[in-house]
Design goal:
Blueprint (H helix, E strand, L loop, with lengths): L30 H4 L8 E8 L5 E8 L10 E5 L10 H4 L4 H11 L3 E5 L19 H16 L5 E2 L2 E2 L1 E6 L1 H12 L3 E7 L5 H5 L7 H14 L7 H12 L4 H9 L2 H5 L11 E7 L7 H13 L4 E6 L19 E4 L2 E4 H14 L9 E6 L2 E4 L8 E12 L2 H11 L2 H9 L3 H11 L12 H7 L2 H7 L3 E8 L4 E5 L2 E8 L7 E9 L5 E3 L5 E4 L2 E6 L3 E5 L4 E7 L14 E11 L1 E2 L3
Parallel strand pairs: 3-4, 3-7, 7-8, 8-9, 9-10, 10-13
Antiparallel strand pairs: 1-2, 2-4, 5-6, 11-12, 13-14, 15-25, 16-24, 17-23, 17-26, 18-22, 18-25, 19-20, 19-21, 19-24
Helix pairs in contact: 3-12, 4-5, 7-8
Keywords: Hydrolase, Signal
Protein name: Peptidase S15
Pfam families: Peptidase_S15
């Protein structure tokens, strides 16, 4: 989810707070603050804030240069899952667009507070994954501390301090939860974050097993083992049972903006201006999540802008790491724009009433050189029939074994050397036909980790490309495709799992999964759903189709074990944009 400046590997998530009337503020180590009204020099210093339950929250205050009597807004910045706060905005700005925006905010006269989320970095407590009753109250405690200690220098409107926020992934999650709990937020810029963690981690009832593995590993390392018990429970269940337990799903739903949009137990949608930034290639928090965030916040009367760009959370090896995170620049309506400048311009507009770059209502980029300006995200579009297509559900074990048998003896020997002795013997016997294929099941995750990108790609070639639309002239594919699909097949004690996404076959016959996005279907019967949102430039001669998989590494352990034939049929609606 989520780490600031930390590559996700195989996993696969003291100054005292014055919260009470009898508490005494501990002054920051800057003499001018004690003078209550004197000029301030630009400075940065670490503080420790005590949260509602006594948990220490480590933070760094970036204090702007202010003339006597001048006041400034406050901006909070949060880090990603498994990461820690930025203590040096200048050095971290080179690799994190949201930190670069925070640096710009500080240089332009705003207070910036970066902080370690509960359970990470130098903060105490255990990781609850943005629980409103814990991480949410930590955010409130930070604002309380700021008012108590920085109050004479904070800019106010109608009795409340002017507060903004920045952050990517987990650092976007705190903004949505924090602003829902505390009305002091005026403008937020959540980037690459979730709307509903049930959908993020378990779409269609199928665990995103690789992402769950990676998040668990990254969170375990980043928190030094301080994870709430429900997190390993979710990991182990997804790995072993191919299901996430209902109590876990209920809990992560409560930790999502979706629960506030649904008015769960009287919860209310935040009243806050929002500039959402999401990656169309993000296979963890996809475009659909940002579309749902925007719709919910707009229904509550908020000013909402949305930038859809080419970055996002990328799976190591399976996706292009060069487009991970947030793009530093984007093209919208023919203009190249600096993304961090857009972020800080939005904060300036809402917190200072100062115009900077015009932040578009909705910009969706197709690549580094093109992006369209829209009023809303297209949903559905040109309807096309999916003719009945039959394929065989089957175990990953068989596919892995087939691949191993195709390898050269030297390559196979190299793989076996990297396995534990007992695993190496099991694999060698299975490849030689001396052991049952199912004995490989426990070794598949380790084998996948050792395979090259090209070798892994072979495991995903067991797909069917079902043609839907021939592109006759250049145009774009922009929005949320929809589908009405039927899965049919013989009775199976397992609910068959099929993965679908839009594919593009170019004039040379090369097929690619558009934006790397897949939607799972679980169980026989009818499925009506939004496919994952896409944005791509199409060329004349391209052919769009439905790609159907029975296994894909994104869902590494979420597959049907028993080999059975299934048929797929129905309709898909394509959000095609521009002249035909």
């Amino acid at each position: 989810m989520w780490r600031r400046n930390v590559s996700v590997s195989w996993l696969l998530l003291t100054l005292v707070l014055v919260a009470c009337s009898n508490a005494t503020p501990t002054p920051p180590p800057v003499e001018a603050l004690r003078q209550r009204g004197g000029a301030l020099a630009r400075a940065a210093y670490d503080v420790t804030i005590t949260s509602f339950d006594g948990t220490p929250i480590a933070a760094t205050v970036f204090q702007p240069a202010l003339a006597r009597g001048q006041r400034a807004p406050l901006v909070l910045h949060g880090h990603g899952f498994g990461g820690s706060r930025s203590k040096d905005l200048r050095s971290d700005a080179a690799t994190d667009t949201t930190v670069r925006a925070a640096l710009k905010a500080w240089q332009r006269g705003m207070f910036v507070i970066t902080f370690d989320q509960r359970g990470f970095g130098e903060s105490g407590g255990s990781v609850k994954v943005m629980d409103p009753d814990f991480e949410g109250r930590d955010v409130r405690a930070i604002l309380d501390w700021a008012e108590a200690n920085l109050g004479p220098y904070l800019r106010y409107r109608e009795g409340d301090p002017l507060v903004g926020a920045l952050g990517y992934s987990y650092g976007g999650g705190f903004q949505l939860i924090g602003s829902a709990l505390d009305g002091r937020f005026d403008a937020i810029v959540p980037s690459g974050t979730w709307f509903d963690l049930r959908y993020s981690l378990n779409p269609g009832g199928v665990p995103k097993s690789l992402w769950i593995d990676l998040l668990f590993a990254g969170g375990l390392v980043g928190s030094r083992g301080r994870l709430d018990p429900f997190i390993p429970e979710a990991f182990l269940s997804a790995l072993a049972l191919k299901r996430v337990p209902e109590p876990v799903l209920e809990r992560v739903y409560r930790n999502s903006l979706a629960s506030f949009c649904d008015n769960l137990e009287g919860r209310q949608v935040p009243r806050v201006a929002a500039f959402l930034v999401q990656g169309v290639n993000d296979t963890l928090f996809n475009l659909n999540e940002a579309a749902r965030q925007a719709a919910c916040l707009r229904r509550a009367g908020n000013d909402v802008r949305l930038l859809v760009q080419g970055g996002g959370h990328q799976l190591p090896v399976l996706q292009d790491a060069s487009v991970s995170g947030i793009k530093s620049t984007v093209v919208c309506g023919g203009r190249r724009l600096d993304t961090a400048e857009l972020m800080v311009s939005f904060l300036q507009e809402k917190l200072l009433g100062r115009r900077g770059l015009a932040v578009p209502q909705l910009c969706v980029t197709q690549n580094d050189a093109s992006g369209v300006l829209l009023k809303e995200i297209p949903v559905g579009g040109v309807s096309r029939t999916v003719p009945t297509t039959t394929l065989t559900n089957g175990p990953l074990v068989e596919g892995t074994l087939t691949l191993l048998r195709r390898l050269s003896p030297s390559r196979l020997e190299a793989l076996l050397r990297h396995l534990p002795a007992d695993a190496s013997l099991r694999v060698a016997r299975a490849v030689a036909g001396l052991g049952a294929p199912e004995t490989l099941a426990r070794d598949v995750p380790n084998l996948l980790a050792l395979l090259s990108y090209e070798e892994r790609a072979e495991l995903t070639t067991a797909y069917r490309f079902v043609p839907l639309e021939l592109v006759e002239a250049p145009r774009a594919l922009v929005g949320l495709p929809t589908a009405e699909l039927r899965l049919e097949g013989a009775p199976n004690p397992e609910a068959p799992i099929v993965l679908v996404g839009l594919g593009r076959r170019n004039a040379r016959g090369r097929v690619e999964l558009v934006n790397d996005q897949l939607a799972p279907l679980r169980g026989l019967g009818d499925h009506t759903l939004e496919l994952v949102g896409v944005s791509a430039q199409l060329s004349a001669g391209d052919e769009l189709g439905l790609l159907v998989f029975t296994f894909h590494p994104q869902y590494a352990t979420s597959y049907t074990l028993l080999p059975t034939p299934v048929t797929v049929s129905g309709r898909v609606s394509l959000p095609l944009y521009g002249a035909k």
